[in-house]
Amino acid sequence: MSQFTLYDYVLSGNCYKIRLMAGLLNVAYDTVPVDFYPGLEHRGEAMRALNPSGTLPVLVAGELILSETQSMLGWLAASFDRSGMWYPVSDAGLHAQVLQWLGFSARLTASVGAARLNAMLDWPTDIETVRGAARKDLDELEVLLTDRVFAGQTWLVGDGPTIADIACFPYVALSPDAGFEHDGYPAIRNWLYAVRSLPGFVTMPGIHPLHELREAESDG
Amino acid sequence: MSRAYALNDWYAVADAQVLARGPRRTMLLDQEVTVSGTTDDLRVIDAEGSAYPAQFRYGHVWTSLGDAPRPLFDIPEADEPGRRLVPCGVVRVKCSPLRAVENFLDIAHFPFVHTGILGSEPHTEVAPYKAEIRDDVDEVWATKISFYQPQAAKSAEAGGDTQYLYRVAAPTTAVLYKTCPPKPEAMDVIAIFVQPRTETECDVWPWMALYDDVSAFAGLVQFQQEIFLQDRSILENQRPVKLPLDPKMEIPTRADLTSIAYRRWLKSKGAFYGALTEDA
Ligand SMILES: N[C@H](CCC(=O)N[C@@H](CS)C(=O)NCC(=O)O)C(=O)O
Ligand SMILES: [Fe+2]
Predict the structure, then answer these.
(1) Are residues B233 and A119, on separate chains, in Cβ contact within 8 Å?
(2) Could you tell me which of B33, B83, B162, B274 has the fewest CB atoms within 10 Å of its CB?
(3) In A, which residues are within 8 Å of B233 by CB distance?
(4) According to CATH, where is 1.20.1050.10 located in chain A?
(5) Which residues, in sequence order, are CB contacts of A140 under 8 Å at separation 6+?
């Protein structure tokens, strides 16, 4: 049974966060494709009535209308994850770290996400500033993930995957679309691989299924 | 770099929507150009203010930088009543414009790159088909192609064998005709109009002329964009970046019949912009 409606654009990394989380939690939903590009429909009157800030995705579940991916991920985990693993709110420290990473995920949208839209769709942006921020964010993530590896950990928070991983995954995985390859980021590569191996993982354009990754690596 | 042949071809440099939003400053064959005006009063000028010919066709603004442009190719289906004309925006790809066309002609990658849409395992085999250079029209054609597809089009309700026909109308323009799921006696038309910015970077304008009265416009566009963006990362990673035209330059593992005909045709014409060749 469909649990929510996602106003969706197939190339959007933010919409993909929700498709991915729903896939991992095995939650059924409906999509309404929005002509984000080239039509800029998300900025039109009808979409603004739903989400005045004019961004995608928008999630609608009954009376509930959400327009920030952080809140959507939290809602999905709180509603459909009986294990409590994806959003560990009962531990104050873990909970706070998840929120910290959700903040970081918004930075990735503004840096890597914007650089990607510019590289792919010639989307107007202050490209030098945005590219600088993207490089800085990826470097920062690499350092933090390296610390996690030294601590014997795979995931961003605690010892299992959380919505923090799902919030940060898309734009890091898609950074090659903007010319930021993963070659110099071994810890990031490991972590991306771990996310891609999760049962229920779904792909999007620019993120190939794991069998291709394996083939590419054994070729090279 | 050899622009000689390329200069006299026509290239899409804007669509109606882009034009309506104001002037588009862009690059064509290593040259800056600005497109402005309306669909029936077009202006294409370079950085020095010199004007170039322009025409509006197939939903796009076309221009040519040469002194003796060849005629713009014909896509007669564009004028057939009942078809929905769907411009899909523009996507920038850091690859040779010729590689973008060659990839569009390749069926063998469908099950691996467009998994679950244009192909699926184990249906990976491409049955024998025919590829030829048609001298009378000076085009490359590939015919008698049949391939199993899980979802051939937005309008497809189930998987099935799809018949294909490919046509390279100009070095940077490829058109395909494929079985139209809701109207099996007709064929859908999908084209890519490649705007070569440089020899290693292009803007690609996908365009469709479909029989589909049901799907919403946004759904049609996203179906095509999803497919095209699955190719983008692969295109950006092909090496060498330029398309090798001399047989010994690249091990022809990937190269299928259409690709071989396309490369031969480019070489015979001297269409070397975006190519790697000993002749250039
Ligand atoms: N609301 C934030 C940001 C979402 C966001 O920036 N989405 C992009 C698409 S990926 C967007 O709608 N951009 C609007 C625009 O640039 O016009 C979130 O949900 O995380
Ligand atoms: Fe493809």
Answers:
(1) no
(2) B83
(3) 176-177, 205-206, 208
(4) 92-211
(5) none
Answer whether CATH 3.40.30.10 is correct for domain A5-80.
Answer: yes
CA distance B187 to chain A (A): 25
Which of B112, B216, B222 shows the shortest C-beta gap to A9?
Answer: B222
Per DSSP, helices labelled H in A25-126 are 45-50, 69-80, 92-108, 114-121
Look up tokens 């050899």; give the residue. Answer: B2
> What predicted TM-score, i.e. pTM, was given to this entire model?
0.94
For B10-54, how does the pLDDT look when each residue is reduced to its tens digit (9 = 90+)?
999 999 999 999 999 999 999 999 999 999 999 999 999 999 999
Contacting residues for B90 by C-beta, under 8 A, at least 6 apart: A38, A121, A122, B15, B18, B195, B203, B204, B205
ipTM of the complex: 0.92
Model confidence pLDDT, tens digit, residues B207-240 = 999 999 999 999 999 999 999 999 999 999 999 9
Contact B221 A38 (CB under 8 A): yes
Which amino acid belongs to residue B107? Answer: I
CATH class of the A92-211 domain in this structure: mainly alpha
